[in-house]
Amino acid sequence: MQALWKLALEPIAESLADPNSYGFRPKRSTADAIEYCFTTLAKRKSPEWVLEGDIRGCFDNFSHDWILKHIPMDKVVLRRWLKAGFIDKGTLFATEAGTPQGGILTPRTMLHTFHSVV
């Protein structure tokens, strides 16, 4: 079911996404990102610095209310996915914030979320 929603959300996310973003994007690869960096940094007046980051706890801390308000899909289905929880060593843990890391739909919702935040 998540794969179907991913297909539905992908055109929306792609139309709003930063054109220089390469992570979790269809028809984009690490090689594409490297090529973009090479051509951008090879110019006479290229940037002096490159910033790369990894946002600690990114998937763990997004507000469910914010996601429900900003992701354009069936809110009942989205709420169920967000509140489904996770199992660790046989114990079910509730999820009050964040998105399921590793879920097929998560990169689509995060791409839309990052664009909306910026």
Order of helices and strands: HHHHHEEH
Morphology call: elongated
Oligomer description: single chain
Given as residue ranges, the uncertain stretches (5+ residues, pLDDT < 50) are none
Portion of residues within helices: 40-55%
Strand order of the largest sheet: 1-2
Rg over CA atoms, rounded to whole Å, is 17 Å
Structural class: mainly alpha
Question: Separation of termini?
Answer: 29 Å
Can you count the beta strands?
2
Q: What is the arithmetic mean of pLDDT?
A: 82
Total number of helical segments? 6
**Per DSSP, what share of the residues sits in E-state strands of 2 or more residues?**
5-15%
Largest sheet: 2 strands, antiparallel
What's this model, at a glance?
The protein has 118 residues and is mainly α. The protein is built from 6 helices and 2 strands; from the N terminus they run αααααββα.
Structure characterization notes:
11% of the residues are buried. It is built from six helices and two strands; from the N terminus they run αααααββα. The protein is elongated. It has helices at 2-16, 30-41, 58-61, 64-70, 75-83, 106-117; strands at 86-88, 91-93. Helix 1 (2-16) packs parallel to helix 6 (106-117). Strand 1 and strand 2 form a beta hairpin. The protein is mostly helical. The mean pLDDT is 82.
